[in-house]
Amino acid sequence: MNNFTFINPVKIIFGKGQIAAIADEIPADARVMITYGGGSIKENGVYDQVIAALGNRSIVEFKGIEPNPHYETLMQAVNLAKRHRIDFILAVGGGSVIDGTKFIVAAMEYEGEDAWDILAKKVPVTKAVPFGTVLTLPATGSEMNSGSVITRAETKEKLAFGSPFTFPKFSVLDPETTYTLPLRQISNGIVDAFTHVLEQYLTYPVNAPLQDRMAESILLTLKEEGPKAILNPQDYDTMSNFMWCATMALNGIIRVGVPTDWATHYIAHELTALHGIDHARTLAIVLPSLLRYKQETKKEKLLQYGERVWGVSSGTEDERLEATIQATIAFFETLDIKTKLKDYEVGEDTIREIVRRFEERGVKNLGERADIQVKDVEEILTMSL
Amino acid sequence: MNNFTFINPVKIIFGKGQIAAIADEIPADARVMITYGGGSIKENGVYDQVIAALGNRSIVEFKGIEPNPHYETLMQAVNLAKRHRIDFILAVGGGSVIDGTKFIVAAMEYEGEDAWDILAKKVPVTKAVPFGTVLTLPATGSEMNSGSVITRAETKEKLAFGSPFTFPKFSVLDPETTYTLPLRQISNGIVDAFTHVLEQYLTYPVNAPLQDRMAESILLTLKEEGPKAILNPQDYDTMSNFMWCATMALNGIIRVGVPTDWATHYIAHELTALHGIDHARTLAIVLPSLLRYKQETKKEKLLQYGERVWGVSSGTEDERLEATIQATIAFFETLDIKTKLKDYEVGEDTIREIVRRFEERGVKNLGERADIQVKDVEEILTMSL
Fold first, then answer.
1. Ranges in chain A, pLDDT < 70
2. pLDDT at A338
3. Which positions ≥6 away from A42 have C-beta within 8 Å?
4. A178-201: string of b/e by CB count within 10 Å (b at 16+)?
5. What is the model's pLDDT at position B158?
6. Residue-by-residue DSSP string for B174-210
7. Within a 10 A sphere around the Cβ of A86, how many other Cβ atoms?
8. pLDDT over 70 for what percent of chain B?
9. Contacts A–B by Cβ distance under 8 A
C-alpha cells in the first residue's frame, strides 16, 4: 500500500424526509443564496421542501446553472451573491449545480483579478464561502468531495480544481428526490459512478486488498442495482442503493493508498467541451478503448476485475481480458449508453482537434504510470471511432 | 436502507515515516501534553520520532495510561494538563491511550462537579481540548472515531461515551510502529476489529447491499491478513492491511443505514471489568454463544456471512448456521484466542455477579432488535462456560 492522507469532513444526511434537516445545519441568521439548474426542482416538490426548511432566513435565488457549468454563468452568480452579501450557499441539484457552486464560493473570496485563474493557472483557493447541498441526481459524487469541473463556453475549455475549502458543510441525499429523473440521467449516473470506481481501481496492484474489495463492492452493487433503477426509478431501496454507491465512488475512501488513472476522464472532457456530449457518455466512449490499449500494463487488475465483477474465469489470458472489456461495454449498452464516436456523429476531425489542443496545452504523462502521451490519446480515440 | 447521518472529520496520515507530518498538524505555539502507556514507545523509536516532530513546542508528558484506562489515572492527567495550561494533546499508543485521551480532553473542559458524570449520567460533552493521535496498535478503531470506553477501578465499572467534540484532529498510522508488538496484542487486535464488523453486520437485512459488501470486504481481508500478521509481524504490507482494516472497521462507514447489535460488547465489558481479561478475548467468549442463542433472528445475515466469508454453502440451514459459527470460533482459535469462560478460569459466580449488576443498573433491550434482556444475558454466558 502507498502512503496516503485522507480527510473528508462532509456531513451526509441520508434518507426520505431529510431535506427538513437543513434547518439545523445553516446558521439561523445566514443570508442564503440557493443555486439550481433548469427548474425541475420547482416541479418535483424539492424546491418547496427547501424553502420550508429555510424558514425565515433571507434568501436569494440563482437559477440556470447548466450541465457542464459555465464560468460565464457562474460569474453572474458570484456578482449576485456579493451584491446581496450572501454568507451561505445552498446548492440544490446534481453534479453540475454542486460543481458550479464550488466555483462560486471560491470565486466570491478570490482576491486576484480573474477567478478563471483558479482553473487555468491552478491558483490555490485559500478561502471560500460555506455551502451545503441537496442532491437530486446520483452520479458525480460531488456532494461528498471537494473537486469541481468547470467549462468556459467562450473557449470550449473544461478544467478541474479542488481545495480543502470546497467540501460541502453537509449534503442531503433523499432518494425520493430522484423519482422524477429522466431515464437518460439515471443511465448517465450509473455509468459515471461505475467509471469513477474503475479510474481508481483498474491500475496495477500495490497489495491493497481492502481497497480492491471496497471498489469491487461498489461495482457489484451498481451492476445489480443499475438495471433495476432503469426499470423502476421509483423504488426507494433501489434508488437509495444507487445513490449511496455514487457517493461512495468518489468520496476518497477507495482511493487511499492506491494508484489512480483518470486518463479516461481527462480525454473524455474534451468530447463534452467540443460537442456537448453527456459526460457519462464520453466516459463510455473512451474507457473501453483505453482499457484495450493499456491492457498489458493493466493486466493484473483487469483479470481480477473480470473474475470478481463479471465472473470471467475461463479462457486464455487474452480471451479473459477481451471478455472483461466486452462485459463492461455490454453493461453500458444495457443502460442504453453507446460506446463509439460514430454513435454520436463524431469523426476524425474531432480527434485531430483534441490532439491539437493537447499539444498546445503541453498535455503529457497521463494515467497511473504517467505513460500516456498525445500520440497515445490519438490512438485510443481512433480505436473508438 | 434506513435513514442515517454520517460525519467523520478525522484526517488520516498513513504510512512509513509519517510521524514527522504531525509538525504541520499541531499549532506551532501549542502547549502540548503527550499521553502514553507503559513506555514501550521509548524502546521502539516512536517516542523519539514524536519528540523530533514536535520541535520547539512546549511539552509535558503523562505516562501510565493502562489497558482499559482508569478514570482515576485519567483525572491525574486532567489535573496535570490544567496546571500546565495545555491546549493540545497528542495521544501516542493504542486504543486505551486514545480512549483515555478522549476522556481527558472532555474532562478538561467539563464544567460540572465530577467528570465521571459524562459516563455514569451521560452528561453531553459540549467542548473539548483538541487532540491528535499516533496509533501504535491496530485494534479498536478509536483513532478514527469519537467513542471512548473508560473503567472506574474503584467500582469495577466500564462505561462508554462519545461526542462530536472527541474526534481526533488527525491520526498518524505508521505500520512500522507495530513491528515490536507482542503477538498477543496482534491477535487481540485482529479479533477486536473482526468483532467490530460483525456487530454492525450480523443483524438483519435492510436491503443495503453496498454496506454488506463493505463489511464483508473487511472480514475477508482480516481473514487473509490476520494469520499472516501473526506469522510475520514485520511485513510492511501485511501490517498495513491489518492496520487499515482495523480503522475502517469502526470509523462509521459500514454502519450507515443498517441496524447494529453491540450486545456482545456490552456483555463482554463486564468480563474485563470484573476479571481484567483482554477486551478482544471477552468478545471471543461472548460472541459465539450470542450468535447461537440468536441464530433464529440473525439467520439471514448469518447464512450470508457463512457463504461469503467462510464459503459455507452446503447442508441444511441449521448445519450451515452451526458451520458458520464454528468457522468463526476456529478463526479465533487459530489466532490463539480461547472462546470459553473456563479457559480464563471464570465460572458461574461471575455470571451471577453480571446478572446482579445488570439488574441493579436496569439493563434491558440489548441487541439490534432490543430483545436481549438480563435473563438472556444469563443464558448466553452460561452457554460460554
1. none
2. 98
3. none
4. beebeeebbbbbbbbbbbbbbbbb
5. 86
6. -GGGGTT--HHHHHHHHHHHHHHHHHHHSS---S-HH
7. 25
8. 100
9. 120
* C-beta atoms surrounding A212 within 10 Å: 21
Note whether A11 and A169 are within 8 A (CB).
Answer: yes
Partner residue facing A241 (CB), from B1, B9, B244: B1
CA distance A358 to B223: 47
Name the residue among A11, A213, A257 with its Cβ closest to that of B217. Answer: A213
Q: Check if A240 contacts B (Cβ < 8 Å).
A: yes
CATH of domain A11-177: 3.40.50.1970
- As a whole number of angstroms, the distance between CA A291 and CA A339 comes to 13
Q: Bin B257: left if φ > 0, else alpha if -120 < ψ < 50, else beta.
A: left
Q: Do B221 and A244 touch (CB under 8 A)?
A: no
Chain A touched by B213 (CB under 8 Å): yes
- How high is the pLDDT of residue A74? 98
Written as one letter, the residue type at B142 is S
Q: Are A335 and A184 in contact (CB under 8 A)?
A: no
Q: Please determine whether the domains at A11-177 and A183-383 fall in the same fold group of CATH.
A: no
Chain A contact for B225, CB < 8 A?
A: yes
Q: Where are the alpha helices (DSSP H) in chain A?
A: 46-54, 71-83, 95-108, 117-120, 183-201, 209-231, 236-249, 263-275, 279-293, 299-310, 317-334, 348-361, 374-383
DSSP B65: P
The answer to whether A11 contacts chain B (CB < 8 Å) is yes
Phi-psi region of A44 (alpha: psi -120 to 50; beta: other; left: phi over 0): alpha
d(CA A209, nearest CA chain B) in Å = 7
The pLDDT assigned to A339 comes to 98
| Contact between residue B345 and residue B312 where contact means Cβ atoms under 8 Å apart | no
CA distance B361 to chain A (A): 34
Is B217 in CB contact (< 8 Å) with chain A? Answer: yes
CA atoms within 13 A on the CB side of B306: 25
Residue B353 burial (CB count, 10 A): 13
Give the containing element (helix H, strand E) for B5: strand B4-14
In this structure, CATH architecture of domain A183-383: Up-down Bundle (1.20)
Question: How close does chain A come to B268, measured CA to CA in Å?
Answer: 28
* Separation in Å, CA A215 to CA A123, A138, A196, A222, A254: 32, 17, 10, 11, 6
Q: Provide the H-helix boundaries in A110-208.
A: 117-120, 183-201
Hey, is A265 helix, strand or coil?
Answer: helix
pLDDT value of residue A156: 85
3 state DSSP class of B4: strand
Compute and round to an integer the Cα radius of gyration of chain A. 20
Q: Do A253 and B257 touch (CB under 8 A)?
A: no
How confident is the model at residue B39, as a pLDDT?
Answer: 87
* Domain edges within chain B: 11-177, 183-383
- The ipTM assigned to this model is 0.97
- Name A157's bridge partners: A152
**Chain A hits for B1, Cβ within 8 Å:** 14-15, 237, 240-241, 244
Q: Residue B203 has what pLDDT?
A: 98
Instruction: Inform me whether the pLDDT recorded for B151 exceeds 90.
Output: yes
Q: State residue B335's pLDDT score.
A: 97
- Which chain B residues contact residue A214 at CB under 8 A? 214, 217
Contact across the interface for A15 and B9, Cβ inside 8 Å: no
Residue B377 has pLDDT above 90, yes or no: yes
B15 and A CB contact within 8 Å: yes
- Residue A14: the pLDDT is 98
Mutate to test the interface with A, among B8, B144, B214 (most CBs of A within 10 A): B214
Inspect the interface and report whether the beta carbons of A5 and B13 lie closer than 8 Å.
Answer: yes
